[in-house]
Predict the 3D structure of the following.
Amino acid sequence: MESASTLHGQLQRGLGRAARRAADRPGSGEYVYDCIRRDPRWDPQCETRDLYYARLMVDLELPIGPVVEHLFDPADQADQADQADQADTDGRRVLLALQVLTEMARLSRREAAVPLRRYAEEGTHWYDALEALMAIGDPVLAVGLDELVAGRCDEDTLMHLVMAPPNPVLESWAARQPRIAAAVDHRRRTARTRLTSRPAPGARDERPEEELVELARRGDEGAVAAVFELGRRRAPGLLDLAEEILPRRPGKLGGVVCRALREYGPEVLPYARRWATARAGCDDIGLHLLARYGTRQDIPLLMTELSDAVSRRDWGDAASPIEGLGRLRAGEAVPLLKTAWTESTYAYLRTRVLTALTRTAPHTAEAYTVEGLWDCEEGVRQVAVETAPLTDDTRMRLQRLNHDAAEDPGVRAASAARLMI
């Protein structure tokens, strides 16, 4: 990734400052294309860039040609030939391009839907394009693709497709294809069955704590339910059990234990402090609990952890310290927070950073909240909409966010509320 001091590097990170600078910088469009072609996201499952780059494409009046060329590059056919060897089966090479075209279609650049249709018909990762066309929600853009869905999707793939929330595209396909209609009907019946078969609210597992701990320790079929019940009770036995299980890194069960421990309150602090410093396999959950429940006596440890994470550029490890220092309003963290905001290659972290800045240094945070109105992450935009100072410039941006049909509904609602002030 390019340096955060350059426009290219800022665009890769999805920073609002880059979106604001791009219009005045010759050559910005080539950087946008490069970001779309070489997906810069550290974690595509959490981070978003699609709407950010789509807005830049619209604002800079960039043609979609280079994005389309990337989709249909000969490498796509190589992907198809290599799928037997499991090469690029997740579609990472083209996923961001498909997502950007989807958002452009939502932003009234309807010509962007044409290559989406073509890719659904011809591309290696055709299923991703189908999902994208469904997400747009306009049946006109997906006319005729029902035959492709019915003919190409096996049972598992079709059931996965119809798991999406109901939308006009899916309904139009189901009206023409009995196989799709049957899958939609099955999904609805299954959803109703799940609702009626849920345990009654307030149902409790009456087994004693010792029995649940033993069941969890065995790791068999009932272990997960036993762990969650111990967490619901905030049972001391789970705290001791965590010290047995987590150092062994036992995969799924360890993740379940960590989730269950988040049900605890401040009573877990003695354990959390010991875990965070012992480095014996429980340090991650220890830091998470300190971030949630720690007191001012925990600030030095959280500061050390954040400083180390920033020095290593390990942005995943920075998340819990940032959350804790922000909650504790630790002013000494501000320089590190500013560095994390600018340098982090993990855009999802910036929501925590901005929240922490607004709590620890409200005046300093103003410039970051203004920039956040243009950020790639909807969580950042949400915080920015709620806290940015109201000026002519920010009011114009709030109006755009409010009226943008492609924007997250929560951000649109918050923008409308803020404009009423």
The chain has a mean pLDDT of 88.
